[in-house]
Amino acid sequence: MINILLSGANGKMGQAVTRVAAASDHVKISCGFDINTTQNADFPVYNQLSQVTEPVDVIIDFSHPSMLDHILDYAAANQIPAVICTTGLSTDQLSRIEFESKKIPLFFSANMSLGVNLLIDLVCRAAKILENNFDIEIIEKHHNQKIDAPSGTALAIANALSDTVSYPAEYVYDRHSVRKKRGKHEIGIHAVRGGTIVGEHEVLFAGTDEVIEIKHSAASKEVFAVGAVRAALFLTQQSAPGLFSMKDLIEAQ
Questions:
Q1: Which residue in the list 141, 142, 190, 221 is annotated as catalytic?
Q2: Distance between CA 235 and CA 241 in Å, rounded?
Q3: Catalytic pick from 28, 64, 70, 146?
Q4: Most buried residue, 31, 50, 163, 198, by CB count within 10 Å?
Q5: Residue 146 catalytic?
Q6: pLDDT at 253 > cutoff 80
Q7: 22 — phi, psi (to 5°)?
Q8: How many Å apart are CA 211 and CA 79, to the nearest integer?
Q9: Which domains does the chain have, with CATH numbers?
Q10: Distances from the Cα of 116 to the Cαs of 42, 120, 174, in angstroms?
Q11: What is the DSSP letter of 50?
């Protein structure tokens, strides 16, 4: 049985991970970390990591960017692998994750859904074939409570496409401020916020007289929780430090 320390335990994603873990025969949440220490499940929740006394084999972090340093400090000091699921991280924070991965196994993905990561694989294959004759646009939709825009997943899709195409891609986030025709090397990125949309990501390839759309929609937060638990199990099987992603998990299947 793998013991999980769940960071952000009382948030919506933390609660989803709790439900997924409770249905698993392979993992158990031994304790939680959150500014809200209300105990909503059968494990204690602390607001200081120094208070943790329960056994911990791996950390799942679905908290807030401001908590990342605390999580990484604790993980590195105790040699505990960590799955970082929090989005909206800065460039410096991403660099810190890469630095700490030289000491311990770390798993980071902008989106923990297996389906989204399959979408990334598919759109990159399409881009190789279509890049000279099709414009690329990315549209992401989320609920009205999401703080960051565009989503980390939309940026991950854009970065994967940028690495795939032969030209230097230019990200364009807002077209209303400049009146000009669309550039040939642009990747448009558009954010929609409203209602209770869990998460939708669509990549549009627009050519002459034809359009190709590749889309992923999440109906609940459970899909991300399932991916996070699978990532935690994967990470505990790694014998050496390193930075792993959903691509590594998929290739290991």
A1: 142
A2: 10
A3: 146
A4: 31
A5: yes
A6: no
A7: -65, -25
A8: 49
A9: 2-112+221-251 (3.40.50.720), 114-218 (3.30.360.10)
A10: 31, 6, 24
A11: G
Closest by CA to 146, choosing from 7, 42, 11, 32, is 11
Residue 9 is predicted with a pLDDT of 96
CA separation for the pair 225, 85 (Å, rounded): 10
Q: Are 46 and 40 in contact (CB under 8 A)?
A: no
pLDDT band at 176 (very low <50, low <70, confident <90, very high): confident
Active site residue 103: no
Contact 141, 218 (CB under 8 A): no
Q: Are 153 and 201 in contact (CB under 8 A)?
A: yes
Quick one: pLDDT at residue 87? 81
167: confidence class by pLDDT, cuts 50, 70, 90: very high
Binding residues for NAD(+): 8-13, 34, 85-87, 109-112
What span, in angstroms and rounded, lies between the C-alpha atoms of 193 and 198?
A: 10
Rounded Cα gap, residues 71 and 83, in angstroms:
10
